[in-house]
Automatic annotation (TrEMBL):
Pathway assignment: Amino-acid biosynthesis; D-alanine biosynthesis; D-alanine from L-alanine: step 1/1
Residues annotated for substrate binding in this entry: R130, M305
Alanine racemase C-terminal domain boundaries: 236-365
EC number(s) on file: 5.1.1.1
Keyword set, alphabetical order: Isomerase, Pyridoxal phosphate
CDD domains: PLPDE_III_AR_proteobact
Gene3D superfamilies according to UniProt: Alanine racemase, Lyase, Ornithine Decarboxylase, Chain A, domain 1
Co-factor(s): pyridoxal 5'-phosphate
GO biological process, one term: D-alanine biosynthetic process
Molecular-function annotations in GO: alanine racemase activity; pyridoxal phosphate binding
Active site positions: K35 (proton acceptor), Y257 (proton acceptor)
Entry-linked PROSITE patterns: ALANINE_RACEMASE
Protein name: Alanine racemase
Amino acid sequence: MPRPIEALIHTDALAHNIARARRAAPDAKVWAVVKANAYGHGIERAYAGLQGADGFALLDFAEAERIRALGWRGPILMLEGCFDARDLETCSRLNLWHTVHREEQIDWLAAHKTQWPHQVFLKLNSGMNRLGFPPAAYRAAWLRLSGLTQVDGITLMTHFADADGERGVHEALAAFEAATRDLPGERSLCNSAATLRFAGESAEVRGDWIRPGIMSYGSSPDFPVHDIAHWDLQPTMTLQAELIGIQALNAGSTVGYGSAFTADRPMRIGVVACGYADGYPRLAPTGTPVLVDGIRTRLVGRVSMDMVTVDLTPVPQARIGSLATLWGRGPNGSVLSIDEVAHAAGTVGYELMCALALRVPTQVVGEP
Ligand SMILES: *Cc1c(COP(=O)(O)O)cnc(C)c1O
């Protein structure tokens, strides 16, 4: 028998979350952001659930090739653009739209021989200071691009640094509006946090294309301020495993490596066939929520490579083979958001879903 652990990818939840993004910006088109192998879900596994999007955005050329191999003929956007001049040949061959965020990428385009002019997204650095032209250089870059026969259309783009936080998007939006004033073309600004928190404010924020990533995968971009129930999002990945051991502890007994947990009374603990080699965060402390048979309980002791230990006090009926839900959908309609687990471990849902390990057998469930 294979080790009793698996991940489920929920097609219906992906479709629900994409529809939710569209509802937040009904006049905009939707890029499903599928970088990092669809945030760890697997591009091929997430594909059916993301069909409601207008295009796929990512940054790895090999992943773009996989989306074309699935039969997708619609738009694909390379969020970091070309890494060298030869990538333009891949863009021409696969009809990829690409971001232009620095001068050299324009040089490469100017020297590129193609029958089909490209769609480019010209990126403004609106304060994040990662990729993009500074506001003072933006217009000149636009003029240069618009003079190239290799370029067919230019979408104006920026990425917000603080859409999920207190600072919000208003300063960055003002920088974008100042830099793009009078420039023609479509616009793309919003990631998930901006879509959920600010798209309702104005057509300027919504733009023509939104770029929801994390919300599509059922994680709240501003947890713990708001959870997925608040935003009407559904978990798209379940990580579940069975109890393969049960131990009865006396008061004073300890659990696991480093004896990091000490029982203060007699209690039963369950040993779950999931550890950090499966993608469960090693730094999750005692108290991190877990479901056993759909009932909420807590992790106790240290996470090890192949196992975690859980308190069975609230689940007296638990036995060998009982189902532990590490995150996602549990039995009987129970839900444990990946955000709660991530938060307890001092990280974000993004990191946990991206880290789902290759050794975990994964199946796609549900209808779009
Ligand atoms: C990753 C990414 C997104 C999606 O961000 P989320 O926070 O996951 O919604 C949007 N735009 C760009 C440029 C990105 O790199």
